[in-house]
Amino acid sequence: MIEMQNVYKKYPNGIIATNDLNIQIKQGEFVYVVGPSGAGKSTFIKMMYREEKATQGNIMVNGINLSKLKNNRIPYFRRQIGVVFQDFKLLPTLTVFENVAFALEVIEEQPKQIKQRVMEVLNLVGLKHKARMLPTELSGGEQQRVSIARSIVNTPKVVIADEPTGNLDPETSWDIMNILEEINTRGTTVVMATHNREIVNTIRHRVIAIEGGRIVRDEQRGDYGYES
Ligand code: ADP
Ligand code: ADP
């Protein structure tokens, strides 16, 4: 599903963000990515959805070789992947419904199909009744649930989340985790960078730890492993 071989990333300013990454993630896995700030977690994740390009090495996602992916094919590739951000990145002038529908309108789905699918995913995240609201009318947890609905509306094989609970209180964070768990149970691969020790140590999954741009630990049902 996701494979990296000898992946090296140097930013234009000379910083080497990741060095010799080698991983394999299978369809249906749930993977936490942990490590200190500046370790390279975001870079690792951004390379998976081609937000950043590897300087050297090979990345395969969904059978697509990202080092050979032409720029004009990136939008097509991204549609096969759901992405969830710490700061939600919802469009503020669009309603909840419109934020989620956006990805389907781009691919010119039929309005009837769009409505059905959008309401289905809003129902899954428990927000069907708020479809007409604007993001600013929602709590942080609700905004994150909208962003998760948006990420899965295209039925991607993988959802990539970069600190999805980073801006949320502990209780709301558990709600978000339960939704990601449900998505994973239905067969979607989930890759999630997180600093949330409680969650990693309670809902056990594979843990990949990155330090100084290198993978220092990769354990099935691992623990968080840091004190704070
Ligand atoms: P983490 O997500 O673990 O905090 P990042 O992947 O964001 O780590 O950063 C890894 C290193 O790369 C850090 O030293 C960071 O300052 C640097 N870095 C991240 N993004 C950029 C960028 N766009 N340009 C230059 N350096 C960057
Ligand atoms: P939380 O305690 O999780 O941060 P809030 O107190 O922000 O939640 O919101 C509680 C409820 O009130 C939510 O269901 C939210 O949708 C609704 N709400 C919050 N702000 C507004 C607003 N400006 N207009 C309409 N509904 C709102």
UniProtKB/TrEMBL annotation:
It is a peripheral membrane protein. It comes from the Bacteria. Pfam families: ABC_tran (PF00005). Keywords: ATP-binding, Cell cycle, Cell division, Cell membrane, Membrane, Nucleotide-binding. GO terms for biological process: cell division. The keyword Cell division applies. CDD domains: ABC_FtsE. It is found in: Cell membrane. Residues 2-228 form the ABC transporter domain. GO terms for molecular function: ATP binding. Its main location: membrane. The keyword Nucleotide-binding applies. Part of the ABC transporter FtsEX involved in cellular division. Homodimer. Forms a membrane-associated complex with FtsX. Belongs to the ABC transporter superfamily. This is Cell division ATP-binding protein FtsE. It comes from Heyndrickxia vini.
